[in-house]
Amino acid sequence: MAESAASTKELEDLQEDLREVRDLLRRHRLVEDLVSRQESAKQERVESPDQKRNAAELGAKLDRMHPADIAYILEALPREERLVVWDLVKADHDGEILLEVSDSVRESLIASMESHELVAAAEQLEADEIADLAPDLPDDVIQDVFQSLPLEEREQLRAAMSYPEDAVGALMDFDVVSVREDVTLEVVTRYLRRFDVLPDHTDQVFVVDRDEHLKGVLPLTKLIVAELDDQVGKVMVRETVTLYPDDKAHEAANAFERYDLVSAAVVDDKGRLVGRVTVDRVVDYIRERSESEARAQAGLSEEEDVFSSVWASVRNRWAWLAINLVTAFVASRVIGAFEGSIQKLVALAALMPIVAGIGGNAGNQTITMIVRSIALGQVRIEQAKKLFAKEIGVSMVNGLIWGGMLGVIAYLLYRSVPLGLVMTAAMTLNLVLAALMGVGIPLAMMRLGRDPAVGSSVLITAVTDSGGFFIFLGLATLFLL
């Protein structure tokens, strides 16, 4: 994941690569079908040149691709084709590709690998990257990898694996470059030239004392323009953003966004430099969190692969579908309670989906904004009263404007002023209900220590559907019949 941005491709180029890979796979399958129809004597003649040539061409294509691009290809292929491509990838790229693919695809690839292959793939990676991969690896593989590492990297791996996924420690990179403040910039320059290549996203050198306490940072931009005879202490920046391993990852992401950081130091409780966080890890975290929230709002877990088996998808989706079934049944019972009213005034059947639909959309707008604000740390439980007041105000204004417009339309269609007024009132009340639920559901989840995004859109839609039907049909029964 810590690869050069210059190596990545535009989406159009990736899609072209995907088309070429699919074409090669299709030709490979055609050859296999042809081979299966041949007599055994003829099979060797057909299989040898064509299948080997297709495999070699596909392998050569993959060798030229960046690991992140191969990961994109793998995620876009059905399981059988994915495994064919995976078998043709060079083993020395396995570890990087496993880091790039989604959790569900990684699980399918790991399941197809032998233990020694997994150990070899993990050994290609840095300690912090192995820690990212560790939750998906079998215990015996982790033990073998652990034993194969030098002592220092073992300690780094143990430290990285001790932090939860949403902590800065889980994003931390141990590959840091540090210098002392009492040396000259000429010494620093000679020191940096000893590296074959600097760690990715090195925009600054960390300045520490003899006990590794962080004293400041030396930006490379200052190193380049300053006099070589100057000491580091004269040029370095003493006030800098520092993080702690136990800090929340989303707080680090906010800091990177706010201060336009490329890297930031991570220190322990005694102020000693233990690692750094780089912008690529933060970007990966933000992307994964966004995808996770999008899935969670629809009631999906992270484990489902778009090409997973029918049974795996059913297991992933059944819980929230069951909840939907219950809420849909409740909505149908609400409608059933007003069957007599609908029979007397058929217009109600045509208008009530509008009230429920608009309420659901408004509720999803509110809940999306609140969930995002919670994720950014901008909302606290103590602010609930102010949030409710604001969203109720917004819903009242929208209800009067759009409900009034729908009331006019209802009057023009059915020539009934009371029906138009009921439509306006029902729309306004359902938007108020949507606002209450849009704020209340994520705050309640937050209070309970749950992810506010999980199933939020499912719940808000259920409430606004049932509530919208009840409000509209109830008002119609009271004032129209």
Give the structure's gist in a few sentences.
It contains 22 helices and 6 strands. With 481 residues, the chain is mainly α.
Question: If you had to describe this structure to a student in words, what would you say it looks like?
Answer:
The relative contact order is 0.07. α1 packs antiparallel against α2, α19 runs parallel beside α21 and α21 (417-447) packs antiparallel against α22. β4, α15 and β5 (263-267) form a beta-alpha-beta unit. This protein folds into three domains: 5-165, MgtE N-terminal fold (Alpha Horseshoe), CATH 1.25.60; 178-297, Roll (CBS-domain); 310-480, Orthogonal Bundle (Tetracycline Repressor, domain 2). The strands form two sheets. The chain has a three-stranded mixed beta sheet with strand order 1-2-3. It contains 22 helices and six strands. It is 68% helix and 5% strand. It is mainly alpha-helical. It has helices at residues 11-36, 40-63, 67-75, 79-88, 94-100, 103-111, 115-123, 127-133, 139-148, 151-161, 168-171, 185-193, 220-225, 232-235, 249-259, 279-297, 310-337, 339-344, 347-375, 384-414, 417-447, 456-480, and strands spanning 178-179, 204-208, 214-219, 242-243, 263-267, 273-278.
Give the tags.
MgtE N-terminal fold, Tetracycline Repressor, domain 2, 3 domains, 481 residues, 3-stranded mixed sheet, disordered N terminus, 22 helices, mainly alpha, globular, CBS-domain
Spatial strand arrangement across the major sheet: 1-2-3
CATH superfamily of the largest domain: SLC41 divalent cation transporters, integral membrane domain
Helical content band: 55-70%
The low-pLDDT segments are 1-8, 39-48
CATH architecture of the largest domain: Orthogonal Bundle
Number of domains: 3
CATH class of the largest domain: Mainly Alpha
Helix tally equals 22
Strand content: 5-15%
Give, in order, the helices and strands. Answer: HHHHHHHHHHHEHEEHHEHEEHHHHHHH
Report the major sheet. 3 strands, mixed
